Amino acid sequence: MRLLRDAVVTTALFLLYAVVFVPLGVLSRVVRDPLDRRPSARRPSYWHRLGESRPAAPARPRSAV
Fold first, then answer.
1. Which listed residue, of 7, 33, 44, 48, carries a Cα 20 to 30 Å from 24's Cα?
2. Cβ count near 28 (within 10 Å)
3. What three-state secondary structure class fits 19?
4. What angle do CA 8, 9, 14 make, to 5 degrees?
5. Distance of alpha carbon 15 from its chain centroid, rounded?
6. CB–CB of 30/36 below 8 Å?
7. Where does 1-65 have alpha helices with state H?
8. pLDDT for 12-51, tens place per residue?
């Protein structure tokens, strides 16, 4: 009985993943680039000269020590 329950739960979780999460992930990548990795044709270069301002890096959370 336990073996059957484990098989049903595993199959149900796989189907949930395959039917819900995989299409959502593919759709989110088709609609937009979440990491902004696509090169822009409007930018002449991605290099930064020394001393030029760059976008600020996100702040790191402080450790609670």
1. 7
2. 11
3. helix
4. 100
5. 21
6. no
7. 2-16, 22-31
8. 999 999 999 999 999 988 888 777 777 778 888 878 777 7
- Residue 28 and residue 20 in contact, taking contact as beta carbons nearer than 8 Å: no
Q: How far apart are CA 10 and CA 16, in angstroms?
A: 10
Decide which of 32 and 11 is more confident.
11
Mean pLDDT, the chain, integer: 83
Question: According to the model, what pLDDT value does residue 34 have?
Answer: 72
28's CB contacts (< 8 A; 6+ apart) are 34
Tokens of 5: 């329950």
Q: How confident is residue 2, by pLDDT bands cut at 50, 70 and 90? A: very high
- The pair of three-digit structure tokens given for residue 35, joined into one six-digit string: 């990491």
